[in-house]
Design goal:
The protein is an alpha+beta fold and 599 residues long. It is 46% helix and 15% strand. It has 20 helices and twelve strands.
Length: 599
């Protein structure tokens, strides 16, 4: 055992993985949030509490989240013939299952709230992400070691693939997203296939079928990673020869395993809506005639190489390989170009208001395998130059993650904002780009004077709570009558609904908000934020600063009006959030929210 530990394949990998584990656990221990199940991840995770805690009842699940964790609620439920279903895929819930059960047991032992979203459930998700990531990195090292790479280069690739990329973010803050798990699944797929080429036993073919099923259930498009199998052959002739050997009963069994895994998703649909097949991602599409290749790679909004510059190394690596191994260079370039084309053809090529170009994370193994293979041919000085460049990238990554988390980054980043706030992390820059750049798109409609329909909510805090404000309200006697102390909602409150539940057509909408506000201390922040979300992407957002309407020590009538034109889809989600500071001395009364629609 000691001799194995001393082997370069073991000791350097163990040191690299230990360092990565320390960094990630340190980040986990110092993060200022306990909410790790959020955003799109709520949908991927929701199958677990839905089945085991809420007995297949989405109404109870949605109410529990909305009442206890409302500011973080992210809608993942679609309607179909008066039934509700989760439109995300079930793969992540399968991988999280043992962690969920362990968190549930710990919650019961320590007297926590067994609702699926309290502290230990939340904590179990980044722990799961870190665990799976370490497995993926270990086997990435095993793949690279077969290229006869130097032990230090392998360890460096393992380390930089985390600290220099958005994986550093998605292993903790975005742990409920599928990307880290898909990264590991793709690595395992390549490792098992590479092992099969060295030792062509049937069991490896079966395992490949199983892993492909997991990859599909995590994120179906990632199944295209199998195209990279071509890289592990020596030539097209070698591929043709080995492919013919694959055409046997074992391949058929592997395909049956794969399709059986995929059918799990259809079974999940059946238990929700009594039918096996449905196109869950309504209103989403690929536009193959208009791929945003330049944007997805180089734009300030969400360019891959802007936010993950270490991946630029793949370009000289492929060029270098054309001189050393033209076959692998050609396969690398063609597969990566095809993946880029496909990802950039998605209607939301920026993939929502997330950190970095997250859609590429599951394909990082391809990038680093190509880079590593090129380094296996490289001379010492080339490896040294590569290392020097790589050392500079973690600092940029860490700073940009901090900028993203503190809202220094704007969701529609451009060249001006990027360089204006480049490397700036002081708290005074928080939210500034949002306030500066968050403006409404111009309406293509001319709103007439004739109102087609209207829907209004109002609440004076004298009666029982209703759905105007989507949280529990306490009454306080300040001024005339009863009103609401904002501090009891953590300083923010919000309204949320689907547009199709307000209006049933696509005419322009005007939003009118009015409420009385008493600030007993001077305010530094008073914002109204309007957001429209289509599936997993924010397609409209605007911060409206109302601080000028607030005078200290008296009741102020705050009024906001905003027009939303034709850039929304029928059942997009509209969310209106209100942000204040000094909430211990801030009171709200006479709230009114009106939606007007014009012909």
């Amino acid at each position: 055992m000691i001799n194995r530990i001393k082997n370069y394949k073991q000791i350097y990998q163990l040191l690299a993985l230990a360092l990565i584990a320390f960094v990630l656990l340190f980040r986990l221990g110092t993060t200022n949030t306990t909410a790790f199940i959020k955003g799109d991840g709520q949908g991927y995770y929701a199958y677990l509490p839905y089945v085991f805690l809420y007995h297949n009842n989405y109404d109870d699940l949605e109410n529990a989240i909305s009442q206890n964790y409302p500011s973080g609620f992210h809608d993942f439920i679609n309607d179909h013939e008066e039934k509700k279903y989760n439109f995300t895929f079930v793969g992540l819930s399968i991988l999280l299952l043992p962690y969920f059960f362990f968190a549930h047991i710990i919650t019961l032992v320590f007297g926590g709230v067994p609702d699926g979203y309290s502290y230990f459930y939340q904590l179990s998700v980044p722990i799961a992400a870190i665990s799976y990531l370490l497995v993926g990195l270990y086997f990435l090292g095993k793949i690279l070691s077969r290229f006869k790479l130097h032990k230090i280069i392998i360890a460096a690739i393992q380390i930089f693939s985390v600290i220099s990329t958005p994986i550093l973010f998605y292993a903790i803050d975005g742990a409920s997203y599928t990307h880290v798990y898909s990264f590991t699944a793709v690595v395992l797929l390549f490792y098992v296939f590479q092992t099969y080429l060295f030792n062509p036993k049937a069991k490896y073919i079966y395992i490949i079928g199983f892993i492909m099923g997991i990859i599909f259930l995590l994120r179906p498009i990632n199944i295209i990673a199998v195209l990279f199998f071509l890289f592990f052959f020596d030539s097209f002739k070698d591929f043709g020869k080995r492919f013919l050997q694959l055409l046997n009963i074992h391949l058929i069994i592997a395909l049956l395993i794969f399709f059986a895994m995929v059918f799990l998703q259809n079974i999940v649909y059946y238990f929700q809506i009594n039918q096996f097949f449905i196109f869950a991602y309504k209103y989403a599409y690929f536009d193959f005639l208009d791929p945003q290749i330049i944007n997805i790679l180089f734009s300030y909004k969400k360019g891959l190489f802007i936010y993950t510059p270490i991946l630029l190394l793949v370009i000289p690596a492929i060029v270098y390989l054309f001189f050393k191994n033209p076959y692998k260079a050609l396969i690398s370039s063609l597969v990566l170009l095809f993946i880029t084309y496909l990802l950039s053809s998605w209607w939301s090529w920026w993939y929502g208001m997330s950190y970095g170009q997250r859609a590429f994370i599951e394909y990082y193994p391809l990038f680093f395998i190509v880079i590593g293979f090129a380094l296996s041919y490289a001379r010492y000085y080339i490896a040294l130059i590569t290392l020097v460049f790589s050392i500079s990238t973690p600092f940029l990554n860490v700073i940009q993650i901090k900028q993203y988390k503190n809202y220094i980054f704007y969701w529609e980043m451009d060249k001006e904002i990027y360089w204006k706030y480049f490397l700036k992390t002081h708290w005074k820059y928080n939210n500034q780009s949002w306030i500066e750049k968050s403006t409404s798109p111009k309406s293509v409609y001319k709103v007439s004077d004739r109102k087609a329909s209207s829907l209004s909510y109002s609440y004076d805090f004298e009666n029982n709570f209703n759905t105007v404000i989507d949280r529990y309200v306490r009454d306080y006697g300040v001024g005339n009558g009863m009103n609401y102390k904002v501090a009891d909602m953590g300083g923010s409150l919000f309204y949320k609904n689907r547009i199709c539940k307000i209006f049933d057509n696509y005419q322009p909408i005007q939003i009118h908000i009015a409420f009385d506000l008493l600030a007993q201390q001077p305010l530094n922040k008073a914002l109204v934020y309007i957001e429209i979300r289509h599936l997993d992407s924010i397609i409209y957002s605007k911060y409206i600063d109302v601080i000028s309407q607030v005078k200290e020590g008296e009741w102020n009538n705050i009024v906001v009006s905003e027009e939303i034109a034709d850039y929304y889809h029928k059942c997009d989600i509209i969310k209106i959030t209100y942000y204040f500071d000094k909430t211990d001395s801030l009171y709200l009364d006479n709230y009114n929210l009106t939606f007007d629609q014009y012909q």
